[in-house]
Amino acid sequence: MQKPLTLGIAGLGTVGAGLLELLHTHKxxxxxxxxxxxxxxxISARSKGKDRGVDTSGIKWFDDPVALAKDASIDAFVExxxxxxxxxxxxxxxxxxxxxxxxxxxxxxxxxxGVKLAKLAEEKGVALNFEAAVAGGIPVIKTLRExxxxxxxxxVYGILNGTCNYILSTMTxxxxxxxxxxxxxxxxxxxxxxxxxxxxxxxxxxxxAILTSLAFGTELGFDQVDVEGIQSISEVDIEAAQDMGxxxxxxxxxxxxxxxxxxxxxxxxxxxxxxxxEVWGATNAVAxxxxxxxxxxxxxxxxxxxxxxxxxxxxxxxxxxGAVMPPLVTPTRGLKPYTKxxxxxxxxAYYVRLSVYDRPGAMAAIAKRMGDRxxxxxxxxxxxxxxxxxxxxxxxxxxxxxxxxxxxxETTEEAIRSAVDAIEQDGKVSERPQVIRIEKLExx
Amino acid sequence: MQKPLTLGIAGLGTVGAGLLELLHTHKxxxxxxxxxxxxxxxISARSKGKDRGVDTSGIKWFDDPVALAKDASIDAFVExxxxxxxxxxxxxxxxxxxxxxxxxxxxxxxxxxGVKLAKLAEEKGVALNFEAAVAGGIPVIKTLRExxxxxxxxxVYGILNGTCNYILSTMTxxxxxxxxxxxxxxxxxxxxxxxxxxxxxxxxxxxxAILTSLAFGTELGFDQVDVEGIQSISEVDIEAAQDMGxxxxxxxxxxxxxxxxxxxxxxxxxxxxxxxxEVWGATNAVAxxxxxxxxxxxxxxxxxxxxxxxxxxxxxxxxxxGAVMPPLVTPTRGLKPYTKxxxxxxxxAYYVRLSVYDRPGAMAAIAKRMGDRxxxxxxxxxxxxxxxxxxxxxxxxxxxxxxxxxxxxETTEEAIRSAVDAIEQDGKVSERPQVIRIEKLExx
Lengths: 444, 444
Description:
- The structure is a homodimer.
- Chain A is α/β, with parallel strands linked by helices.
- Chain A folds into 3 domains: 5-133, 3-Layer(aba) Sandwich (Rossmann fold); 140-301, Dihydrodipicolinate Reductase, domain 2 (2-Layer Sandwich), CATH 3.30.360.10; 346-438, Alpha-Beta Plaits, CATH 3.30.70.
- Helices cover 35% and strands 24% of the residues of chain A.
- The first copy, chain A, is built from 14 helices and 17 strands.
- Chain A has helices at 14-25, 27-34, 65-69, 86-97, 107-124, 140-147, 162-174, 178-187, 196-199, 202-216, 235-243, 305-320, 362-372, 413-425; strands spanning 5-10, 38-44, 60-61, 76-79, 101-104, 128-129, 153-159, 226-227, 246-257, 260-271, 283-290, 294-301, 347-357, 377-383, 401-408, 411-412, 434-438.
- In chain A, the strands form 2 sheets. In chain A, strands 7, 8, 9, 10, 11, 12, 13, 14, 15, 16 and 17 form an 11-stranded mixed β-sheet that branches. A 6-stranded parallel β-sheet of chain A has the order 3-2-1-4-5-6, sandwiched between helices.
- In chain A, helix 5 links the parallel strand 5 and strand 6 (128-129).
- In chain A, helix 1 (14-25) crosses helix 12 and helix 13 packs antiparallel against helix 14 (413-425).
- Chain A is elongated.
- At the A-B interface, helix 1, helix 2, helix 6, strand 11 and strand 12 of A face helix 1, helix 2, helix 6, strand 11 and strand 12 of B.
- Strand 12 (294-301) of chain A pairs antiparallel with strand 12 (294-301) of chain B, so a sheet runs across the interface.
- Chains A, B: Keywords: Amino-acid biosynthesis, Methionine biosynthesis, NADP, Oxidoreductase, Threonine biosynthesis.
């Protein structure tokens, strides 16, 4: 048996506590499979006295995570503090500069400073592993970095935020409003008191930025991601989607186009016969299209202390087994610059929901605005919400707005936005039209 | 740039040709990401002159794969010959004995001789990688060997044979018979002229045996797998399953129970709201339940030259990058013996289809046989095939058999088989009852 791999762990929240539990529970298993014991020799967290369910009395305490990061006793530093800057960044840099391997679950840090940190890791010949930074227990970093490294990836997309997926699932299953579903998610601890980071799509954008770099071998472009959240999704959109054979998911999608990288986060419709449409609740999913491997879909727990700790442990195990991979798939000197494709150039089909004043010529005017921009319509239905069944409520009064839903054939973002703006300016609709992109999936 | 990794490739069928194409297309990408060029220096196949779509004129030809395997010019040997014994085994052993890394796509070889070969690789300090041996392009070997190595796996299961899944998909989508769907699969090249290996479940059993060892850290137990094929599945079973909210898939399932390992291959019902139920056509899927990571599902191409070549290439890339992992997750000295749990001890719910003579007391006698063995019934329906709509055919004649379908609550294999045997012996049914296991999935 070789000498132990010694760890310093900074940050003992749910993931840190999960990691302590895992390394305690599976001590013998890890030692056997790594070919050497893995020992925690130093820890650091905000409050020293807190009970974390695992005996840490034999482990040296550090008030300062930076001091732990460069302590002579550790081989590898595990950063579970969080935040793109501040002490997390200082500690990771200190560890790398001291020639320590680094494992981090910090998506914001990697999305913002990943290239610089990867370069430093390469110079020092140490690992910088971050499986837990994206999609919790799903091994998507390893899949892109290793399994698909000899492929050209053309698209990566997925359900990357469990809070949003939980809310959309609740709205779909229980026919509840967004506000109501959000409140339940908050009560259950799935959503924060200030839910903006999750429901606004920013968490997904951080994760997508990391996946994009790994997929296409480019520098990181977090500030280049177009982001929309799920706040605008209503029960009627979800009902209409179901009736037409779609589910609505918050997707992060990055596609390599001739004009550059199109990276976007937004609610999207996916066909109900697809496997990804059956990913419900707090579960995450990541799909990858590549030239030789065709399409992969990975589904699993996107968060939670134990599942995320499992991802951290796999990173630690790789280090213990002696594997050091280029952090961003391609050595940083070979990373291509990030070139953004304008969202206006996006091509796809669209769902458009209009609240149309029931006046003579209204539909003709709408059809003309679409036709002028060569947007052709695949289907059009006038419908009422499922809750308003005939006989249960008064029939629609003449002159009041009617709900009209269109599915377009493939068109461009520019064309559909311009058509919808013109329809709104014509005064034919009573509220701002709802526009949802339909994501094209490969037939399996 | 370091010195090249030199490869010898034996076997140039569809996977071998795919690998030549991949290494040609992505030569620069592979070199950059591996940190060194990957060069094919020797090849061997049955017919030397055949056009494989890639120029092989600069590569040394070997008539004898064993000579190639131990040739001084190669660092790693890629075995794509196939077959559990014979020249494939001889060549792999020769390569390992000569201290060469080995990559193989040969499921039969690994299922039968994996422990012996892994031991040899460990002694020589070289890699034995076989990502392509199970589920084509899906990175399931890496997921078990690396991503979940610090977990205790409790179950691994999946759709591991594209031919069977294609046939079941065709039967489901197009309401066609098994014989008809098989013929189409043969016409399209998805099924062999002698389809026994695929439709009888033996291909799935080979793959499951490998997954089982990796999942539970045991020796290989290919001959311990209980195997049933899909030949007995009829259109009425598929229709009845659909009506009750299930899809029928050929699953390979390995579960760790208190009595040992339960490894079985058989047609199974899975709920339509599960992601795995939406895996159609020739696509494969593998699901893994583990203590810290909960549940993962991986979906992708289970066969095909290009996707399988992608898996082989990832194995090669790992070697070029210097990663050498224990072939069977746990070093062979730590492998546990394979202890089989009897299938009779299997616990689960069952679908039972009976063709019952419409005579007084028949149902009472059937119910008694079930009740005597404490098999309780969740639902029972008498139904006619969908094709026999009322008014289109004569109504059932008094005394002729009626189709009765039951779903049981959780019971044991022993109880249900005993009940069904007794019902048959009672002479209450006109043909052998159909029994299909319902696989319990975690709610996502």
